[in-house]
Design goal:
Length: 58
């Protein structure tokens, strides 16, 4: 890595997993429970994104 990239990485604040979950994941008001949580702005179920990333959808 170049010195510039290393400097930017050191200056970037870290955000905890819990903070990211609070920021981007919300409960589904029509289907309560963690199994039906969704991405806040897009209302896409988390399970659908995970399934897609694991190759379950094409």
């Amino acid at each position: 890595m170049g010195a510039d990239v290393q400097w930017r990485m050191q200056e970037t604040p870290t955000v905890s997993d819990e903070e990211l979950i609070r920021r981007y994941i919300t409960p589904n008001p029509y289907r309560p429970g963690v199994a039906d949580a969704r991405v806040s702005e897009h209302c896409v179920p988390v399970w659908a994104i995970v399934g897609h990333l694991e190759g379950g959808c094409s």
